[in-house]
Amino acid sequence: QMAAAAAVVLADMFGEDYAMTDHCHEGRTEFNGAPREFENFFEMTEENGLSRIPLGVHFRIDVDAGLELGYEILGKVLNLPW
């Protein structure tokens, strides 16, 4: 999953315990547009993946495998001797 790969890169840049608040849906009226708080990039990524299940885009096994692959692959990329 691309979001998992992005989480690995962002955690490498800002630290694994970088907490954040997402304001991008603030003020939306068609759903609860309250700001979302996350303790780290991985928490945000996992919620992003799980949000695809009720939409019918993915099954849980797809989300779990995508997260695992994204974390593993980008972890290896970051360890390459640049």
Summarize this entry quickly.
The chain is mainly α. It has three helices and two strands, in the order αββαα. Helix 1 runs antiparallel to helix 2 and helix 1 packs across helix 3.
Describe the structure.
There is one protein chain. Helix content is 51%, strand content 7%. With 82 residues, it is mainly alpha-helical. The protein has a two-stranded antiparallel ribbon. It is flat, with a radius of gyration of 14 Å. The mean pLDDT is 92.
Topology readout:
Layout: H1 2-14, E1 20-22, E2 36-38, H2 41-50, H3 60-78
Antiparallel strand pairs: 1-2
Helix pairs in contact: 1-2, 1-3, 2-3
List its salient traits.
two-stranded antiparallel sheet, 2 strands, flat
